[in-house]
Design a protein that fits this description.
Keywords: Signal. By secondary structure, the protein is an alpha/beta fold. The protein folds into two domains: 182 residues, 3-Layer(aba) Sandwich (Rossmann fold), CATH 3.40.50.2300; 173 residues, Rossmann fold (3-Layer(aba) Sandwich), CATH 3.40.50.2300. It is 39% helix and 19% strand. The protein has 13 helices and 15 strands. Strand 7, helix 8 and strand 8 form a beta-alpha-beta unit. It is globular and about 60 Å long.
């Protein structure tokens, strides 16, 4: 069973629940007391009791609209996979378009107040708000997507999106005629910088002449800005575009211009069938099913999870016949190597754009290195925005 609530309706329901004593019995709308005035254990215990009496209540906070493509759409497909897997053992709900920051904290508190005992926050900017709420609700389990801070009742999960970016780069490097690639970046955090670099490394593996231009839109989902950024890159000579943003605007812009681009996070081929060189997709279903199973069976524990091609979380799909057969075969080989561990993307020597060696010859980057990338590799033009 699914419940889709807007932020406004959630707040209204919560306010109504504060006036209705019976709301606690039906598990929705109970307004929690301020942390300084309430026992940290009393409300979560009530939520846990409600969960024991019925299906596990699971809530998802989304940064963008579900729509029909992109980051949030991919997460919602994972939620649907949970419903399919567990049936009436679970009851899921979601709130879309929740901004990162203070409003995220308010929404997450409301989701807990409604009796949800497993809460997923699906964007980096929810990390601090979720930590605050988790501290006040020790009997609720929190899952934070793409973050790095944990608590006893909050763990992190992520997908190795850089693997999809690298495979897309291999194709881009073989299809460009100008040797200039363009990337529309969202927010300059290590995750996104890592993807830009991986895309470039993949392209350079088949075409050493590659240079990559980057335009930052400083938003995860902003189709007008994404369109403007994509057009700017085309104007600068890029003929293959990549993105780390959530809408299909970049692909659509390439389609109109007669150039090439990739889908991101989900299959976007229908938005630009002539421009589409493949979609680097995320399948959140396997992890969401695992997390739900952990909660249902009482085996959930904190920590961090980072899944990729090996676990079925990352793939590059929809590569068209216009891509040379040897390149398609190369991508398949890379995919197989990522799956069985025989291929490593970040293996030295790797140098930054100033020529400084950041990874020695034959050295393999560990997750700590990958999680802290704040530099551009050789071939990426411009500077990483200050403060990142």
């Amino acid at each position: 069973m699914t419940l889709n609530l807007s932020k406004r309706s959630i707040l209204k329901m919560t306010a109504w629940g504060a006036l209705a004593a019976s709301a606690a019995l039906v598990g929705c709308g109970k307004k929690e007391a301020a942390p300084e005035a309430a026992s940290a254990a009393s409300e979560p215990a009530s939520a846990a009791s409600a969960a024991a009496a019925g299906p596990l209540k699971i809530a998802f906070a989304y940064v963008g609209p579900v729509g029909d493509a992109g980051w949030t759409f991919a997460h919602d497909q994972g939620r649907l996979a949970v419903e399919k897997e567990f049936g009436d053992k679970v009851k899921t709900s979601f709130v879309e378009k929740v901004p990162e920051g203070p409003e995220a904290e308010r929404v997450i508190r409301d989701l807990v107040a409604q009796g949800n005992t497993l809460v997923f926050g699906t964007t980096f900017g929810y990390m601090e708000p979720m930590l605050k709420v988790a501290a006040d609700h020790p009997n609720v389990k929190f899952e934070h997507g793409t973050g790095y801070k944990t608590a006893a009742n909050m763990r992190t999960y992520d997908s190795r999106t850089y693997e999809g970016a690298y495979m897309a780069g291999v194709i881009a490097g073989s299809m460009t005629k100008t040797n200039t690639l363009g990337v529309v970046g969202s927010i300059p955090i290590p995750e996104v910088i890592r993807n830009i670099n991986s895309f470039t490394l993949g392209a350079q593996s088949v075409n050493p002449k590659i240079k990559t231009k980057v335009v930052w839109v400083n938003a995860w989902f902003d189709p007008p800005k994404e369109t403007e950024g994509a057009q700017s890159l085309l104007n600068q000579g890029a003929d293959v575009l990549f993105q780390n943003t959530d809408s299909s605007a970049v692909l659509q812009t390439a389609e109109k211009a007669g150039k090439y681009a990739f889908g991101w996070d989900s299959d976007m081929s229908k938005f630009g069938p002539k421009a589409h060189l493949g979609s680097a997709i995320i399948n959140w279903g396997p992890y969401y099913i695992k997390a739900t199973k952990d909660a249902l069976e009482g085996t959930w524990q904190t920590g961090g999870v980072w899944w990729g091609v090996k676990e079925g979380a990352i793939d590059l799909i929809g590569v068209p016949e216009i891509v040379p057969a040897d390149i398609r075969a190369k991508v398949d080989t890379i995919k197989g190597g990522l799956k069985d561990g025989s291929f490593v993307i970040w293996k030295g020597p790797v140098v930054d754009q100033d020529g400084k060696e950041v990874l020695a010859k034959d050295a393999v980057a560990d997750d700590k290195f990958l999680g802290g990338i704040k530099f551009y590799v050789k071939g990426v033009e411009g500077k990483v925005p200050a403060g990142n």
